[in-house]
Amino acid sequence: MRNNIKKAFGTILLTIVIAGLTSMAQSLPNKADSLRYEILMSSKMLDSIHFNAKFIKYVDITSHRLVLLSTSDQFYLLGWGGVVPLGKKITGKIYSYAITPDGLLMAVNNDKLCAFDTLGNLSTIYKLPREEMGISSGKNGMFIYDQNNDHQINMLYVLAKGGKFAQLFGISTPIHSVVEMTDSILFASDNAVYSYRFADKKMKILVALAENNLIRSIAVDSFGSRIYFSTNDMVFTMKDSKALLVTDKFGGEIKYFNDGLLVFNPGKRILLRIVGLDALLGH
């Protein structure tokens, strides 16, 4: 399956010219070690290619260092000059997706966990307990969770290597984002970031914002030494269990990549990368 996915990505690569995210970026002039923003996609760019479809909130990076985006029924790769469809349109609805540690594209399609096959379709792997679940990639498996407001108890599951599907815990509020640390996971729910330790199954709040500030995404840097989290309009980092503001100019889904922080706001149709955070935060 992994080789098949790589072949599918390789076919797409033949149709676009790209040299990685750095070459795509339209950077503001700045010193190499200073804070700067690289615009990878904007509403103006999408309008210029007459792209009117609405992206869902998720964003990921392929093994070929391409940005993977999706509407509710179609995957896309971001490259020079626009976005290129990946595979065929999907029957049903894509609610979430993530790339596994070994490079497979997995997605939640209605109430099914699926993998992207060689024909550009989603092939069902599991029937999930509920519809519209979220999915995130961990170091050795995948996390699947309730992300909407329809349930009294919102569950988080892990799909480990070998196909073992297990329940980790349930909470009263929806889960919006999950990332894995060395011996624990971090997850966002309502206005707080929580940690959950695997060894003793203990859960605690790491940081909380004022009420009605929904935390929608979490990211961890390459060394696991700094945690970032975001609302719709702001990006924060954590320092001594307090929220330190990175920017109040924009927010959205975040992902740490190549020493920079990707910020994707599907509503505003913008994707950018913050570089030089060490200078701002005093790493």
How would you portray this structure in words?
It is a single chain. By secondary structure, the chain is mainly beta. The protein has a single domain (2-281), classed as YVTN repeat-like/Quinoprotein amine dehydrogenase (Methylamine Dehydrogenase, Chain H), CATH 2.130.10.10. The chain has four helices and 25 strands. The protein has helices at 2-13, 21-24, 43-48, 277-281; strands at 26-27, 36-41, 60-61, 67-70, 75-79, 82-86, 94-99, 105-109, 112-116, 122-127, 134-137, 141-145, 154-160, 165-171, 177-180, 184-189, 192-197, 203-208, 217-220, 227-230, 235-239, 242-247, 253-257, 260-265, 270-275. The strands form six sheets. It has a five-stranded antiparallel sheet. A four-stranded antiparallel sheet has the order 3-4-5-6, with helices on one face. Strands 7-8-9-10 form a four-stranded antiparallel sheet, with no helix packed on it. The longest helix has 12 residues, at 2-13. Residues 1-31 have low confidence and may be disordered.
